[in-house]
Amino acid sequence: MTKRMAMITLAAFLAGAATLCAAEVPDDTAPEMKVKSRKLVFKADPKGLDWAARGSLTKTKTGRWIATYTLAAKHARSVPRHVVVHTSDDEGRTWSKPNCLPDGTPVEGAPLRGENERIEPNDGGVLTCPNGDLLYVSDSCEHVPGKKLQNYQTRQWRSTDNGASWKFEGPAPGIPGLIGVDGVPPGAPFALFSLGKTVEGGSIYITTYHRPWPPWGVLYRSDDNGHTWKMVSEYAKRAVKAGDPDDGVNETGVVCVDENTIMVVCRSGNERTTKMRISRDRGKTWGPMTDITKYVHVVQQPKLTKFPEEPGRIYLTGRDRILEHKQRNGLWYTEDCGETWKMKPVDGDAYFNDSGYGEILKRKDGDLYYLGYRGTDNAADMWEYVLESDYRKIQE
């Protein structure tokens, strides 16, 4: 068998395996959770920056909703990008113009970029700190004309006035980065934000993945509203080499189930499995890594959310990856701390080349508001989905 034929056979096997895995999982195990509406909510700029993606949501202490997403020319780290901010005072029923408050006042410091205009946010998420500050945390790097990307860091932006203005704070203090390219020892570790974020009491937890490849997962905590960060533990060990069965993890969601229990859901670096791990002592030690692919398919950029009014339920959102070019926005939930999961494909039977990174908030009437994106690697838009939660029906 020639090398080319072997590669084709392997590709066919992998594609078949991915399809088989998807077929084994029921397509909608939460049919009672109705999708009430699907609507394009934030359209990309047609003048070149036509890839709007990677949305994030938070609710401020006053009840204002903040939505962010990345705007770029395409799905690639190598192109300049920035983060757009929208605000809403009616739970997402109407949204402000880009980078404005609900009354039309421009948001100072938005869109979010670095102070030297070369720092580019890549994968990021917005959260509300215990003291009410808004914090945008991002995997980011620096674009230098004529040079390779450099200065990989977890960086952050902050708002202290309910989203009216934002200030770039630079690298997240306490989280290692890759400063420059020259002079860095081979194999020196650095951390990039992997979108996992959760707040419990007076603490913020985020997940990162340390590199070089294959990556491994690390949990960080801040007890001072994101002004400093400390490493808590590794939640996923580094594989011995790329190509190992686990192949590391590089996309992870995190949530505090209660004041002591922390759950992480992570996608393997080889994009074949979704795994879960639980700590019962605030991330100091971890239980076994459990493969949950049979319940949730392969979830890219998983995010975990809980709502105080729904005790015992944890939501998982992200990209339901069936095949490389067959993807959609999905929502899952568990009511037994990850023992089993139910699934709702919010895009229904529609599939896309590029999608996901979804995140949810809950309205006062009980409906769930889901913000995700869909399209191709070169053009995408942000979509909203309103779902009727089945939680109240189950309790009744």
How is this structure best described in words?
This protein has 396 residues and is mainly beta. The protein has a domain at 51-171: Neuraminidase (6 Propeller). 8% of the residues lie in helices and 46% in strands. It contains three helices and 23 strands. The strands form six sheets. Strands 1-23-22-21 form a four-stranded antiparallel sheet, with no helix packed on it. Strand 22 and strand 23 (380-388) form a beta hairpin. The longest helix is centred in the first third of the chain and has 22 residues, at 3-24. It is globular, with a radius of gyration of 20 Å. Residues 1-23 have low confidence and may be disordered.
Features of the shown structure:
396 residues; mainly beta; Neuraminidase
